Amino acid sequence: MSQNNERPMRGRFAPTPSGELHIGNAWTALLSWLQIRSASGTFVLRLEDIDTQRSKPQLAEQILDDLYWLGLDWDEGPDVGGPFGPYIQSKCMEYYEEALKQLESKGNLYSCFCSRSDVLAAVRAPHGLSSEGLAYPGTCRHLTAEEAACKSQDKEPSLRFKVHHEPLSFFDGAAGKQEFDAASGGDFIVRRADGMISYQLAVVVDDHRMQITDILRGVDLLDSVPRQLQLYIALGMEAPSFSHVPLFMGPDGKRLAKRHGGTSLAAIRKAGTAPERLIGWLMWIGGFIAKPEPLSAQECISLFRMNKLPSEPIIVTDQTLSRLRER
Question: Within its chain, how far is the Cα of 129 from the centroid?
Fold first, then answer.
């Protein structure tokens, strides 16, 4: 994957407004912001509300409010505008449809009539699961045009992208060198049967359209890179640089979520915690400073180094949370 290092640095934070931000989201947002601000680059905020059934306008407003409360700002976004808008995915359908037309014209797509239960039944055989979920066994890949037309009379199909067995490698700014078999997860959906565009396609189109050069996000999305790289290649687009950072985990070893209680930014704000205390706590638990102390986001710019990032998940316990609540 080639990179043009002379391109002006542009990064983004792209939350989904389907739930409140928690300290894990704040950690990723802060790191993404620090990466770009420390390089005097352009920082973009994008709302990924492509799943309109789960996304809520009031949560979108709360996300912006929480990020401003943290002391983060952005040069382009849904509230400040910019040259590459819209910065809200649900308003970008024309761009996704154009990408689908390009992929279809190149023979990269095919109609799939399989339900989730169909795929599950098939992968219980010799196929198994990819780390992103069900590995599609290619059931509909070789349907004739006549067979597909016949099936479409009874069911609206999804569209899948054809993958090919080939090695893909890239250097991750946080996780190091990565090597994948491009076909390990099977052919993947780019448009669901109900018309919803997949995350994989939408994020590639948006990042290209917004000229994003550097993506910093959680390591849970590392397995998305092979799929996204294949889309970049098929669409003739230059891929950005990637950095996938460790996640916050609860004491149970599971990804931090509502069940762990009191970790949403709304709850932390309601408890009267100052944003500087949360920022300093994030820098401490992330290994950037020796002890938790109040810091503004601006004060953290000079402290940020990619090589200081931990390599393992960050376990958040009641004891570590108590350091956040200290007065």
Answer: 21
Q: Which two tokens stand for residue 151?
A: 């099936």
SS3 173: coil
155 assigned to active site: no
* Gap between the Cα atoms of 240 and 225, Å rounded: 11
Distance between alpha carbon 278 and the CA centroid of its chain, in Å? Answer: 23
Q: What stretches of the chain adopt beta strand conformation (E)?
A: 10-13, 42-45, 109-112, 129-130, 133-134, 158-161, 167-172, 176-181, 188-191, 214-218, 241-245, 248-249, 314-315
Cα–Cα distance, 105 to 279 (Å, whole number)? 48
Work out the angle at residue 207's Cα, subtended by the Cα atoms of residues 205 and 209, and round it to the nearest 5 degrees.
Answer: 65
Residue 129 has pLDDT above 60, yes or no: no
**Interval 145-180: pLDDT, tens:** 899 999 998 899 999 999 988 999 999 999 999 999
Output the CA torsion sign for 256, 259, 263, 266.
Answer: positive
Q: What is the CA 53 to chain-centroid distance, rounded?
A: 18
Distance of CA 275 to the CA centre of its chain: 24
The secondary structure of 103-151, three-state, reads HHHCCCEEEECCCHHHHHHHHCCCCCEECCEECCCCCCCCCCHHHHHHH
- Cα separation of 257 and 211, whole Å? 32
- What does the alpha-carbon distance between residue 206 and residue 69 come to, in Å, rounded to a whole number? 26
Q: Give the DSSP letter of residue 188.
A: E
Are the CB atoms for 276 and 298 separated by under 8 Å? no
pLDDT tens across 222-245, in order? 999 999 999 999 999 999 999 999
- How many other CB atoms are found less than 10 A from the CB of residue 274? 13
Per-residue pLDDT for 130 more than 70? no
Closest by alpha carbon to 158, among 105, 110, 97, 92? Answer: 110
Active-site annotation holder among 101, 106, 254, 258: 258
